[in-house]
Design a protein that fits this description.
The complex is a heterodimer of chains A (about 260) and B (about 55). Chain A has about 260 residues and is α+β, with helices and mostly antiparallel strands. Chain A contains eleven helices and seven strands. In chain A, the strands form two sheets. In chain A, strands 1-2-5-4-3 form a five-stranded mixed beta sheet. In chain A, strands 6-7 form a two-stranded antiparallel sheet. In chain A, strand 4 and strand 5 form a beta hairpin. Chain A is elongated and about 60 Å long. The two termini of chain A are about 15 Å apart. In chain A, about 40% of the residues are buried. Chain B is mainly alpha-helical and about 55 residues long. Chain B is elongated and about 35 Å long. Chain B starts with a helix and ends with a helix. Classes of the chains: A alpha+beta (about 260), B mainly alpha (about 55). The interface between A and B is large, with 39 and 34 residues.
């Protein structure tokens, strides 16, 4: 079922990127995701191609989903579909046309990566875009971001820009200590509390608990800012979704696409 | 059959120290194993909905 779905996207030339859970699995930063998240280019032509691909695999609308139309995609709504019956075998597909904190689709597509898998050759959002998308309200996403960030550093080397960016995208003490020990040059390019910068390059087991606690507070404060920003991002979209529900514009669960 | 708690525990991100073996796998193999674990969920719908439509 899942391979057929991706084959259908391919055969109808749908412009899309795999994002979120399965993308983090492909990049090696997480071990599990229960659904398929896609970012599709929200142009009318592409939406029509996507609709055709969904129909070909008998997809149906799931909960809280507006009609699959460009204006709703462009205003940031999430679209939820399922394949098969709504039982243990059901497969969920969650779609965005304008993910939070995203750049233009064409720009992200230019920095995407293709992975060869059992489901075909999957266009997958680039690491830095994926990291921005994962700055959600869910605490569980922040260790994943940290692992993805270490992946960026390993893949792209230790330029001052990369290290400066990386140190603001680590949210666990474990990832920060690893980064600090292996990439001590970060200290030259970042605005970080001096108690932390003084210990750049030191092995994790030589870092005093008080410094680890300060690092944790510093990262937690950044995490809280991202969570707040995400809440504020979704507020007007959720408000509009409530209005669509009141106006009975949302699709009924189970309706074929 | 794995319990939901076991599956969700396995879903937690790997630390940089524990991730080595996982990252040594090919992306295709990681996806294969992830989807196998997903197929063992007692109810994928519950997990999906809890993440996507959290109760306030």
């Amino acid at each position: 079922m899942i391979a057929s779905f991706f084959q259908s996207l391919e055969s109808h030339s749908v412009a899309y990127l795999l994002i979120s859970g399965q993308a983090t699995v492909l990049y090696g930063a997480a071990t599990f995701s229960e659904d398929i998240d896609l970012w599709i280019e929200p142009s009318p032509e592409n939406v029509e191609r996507f609709r055709t691909a969904l129909r070909e695999v008998n997809a149906r609308y799931y909960k809280l989903t507006p009609p699959l139309e460009t204006p709703y995609l462009r205003s940031g709504h999430g679209f939820h579909f399922f394949l098969g019956e709504l039982d243990n075998e059901a497969m969920f597909i969650d779609v965005l046309g304008r993910p939070p904190r995203s750049r233009a689709f064409a720009v992200a597509l230019g920095e995407s990566r293709h992975f060869e898998t059992d489901w075909g050759r999957l266009p997958t959002v680039g690491l830095r875009d994926l990291i921005e998308l994962k700055k959600t309200q869910r605490l569980a996403d922040y260790p994943i971001i940290s692992a993805l960030t270490l992946g960026v550093v390993e893949a792209s080397g230790v330029s001052a820009e990369t290290l400066s960016w990386a140190v603001t995208n680590l949210f666990t003490a474990e990832s920060f200590l690893f980064f600090n020990e292996h990439y001590p040059q970060w200290v030259q390019s970042s605005d970080v509390p001096s108690t932390l910068t003084r210990l750049a390059g030191r092995p994790a087991d030589e870092i005093p608990d008080s410094v680890i606690e300060e690092a944790t507070r510093w990262m937690n404060a950044a995490m809280a800012r991202h969570q707040r920003a995400d809440r504020n991002y979704w507020r007007p979209i959720i408000e509009e979704l409530r209005k669509l529900r009141r106006d009975r514009i949302l699709m009924r669960e189970g309706t074929p696409v | 059959m794995s319990t939901l708690a076991e599956i969700e525990a396995a879903a937690e991100v790997l630390s940089p120290f524990k991730a080595v073996r996982w990252r040594e796998l090919t992306p295709a193999e990681r996806l294969r194993r992830s989807w196998t674990a997903r197929n063992q969920l007692p109810d994928a719908r519950v997990v999906h909905d809890r993440k996507l439509f959290p109760k306030p």
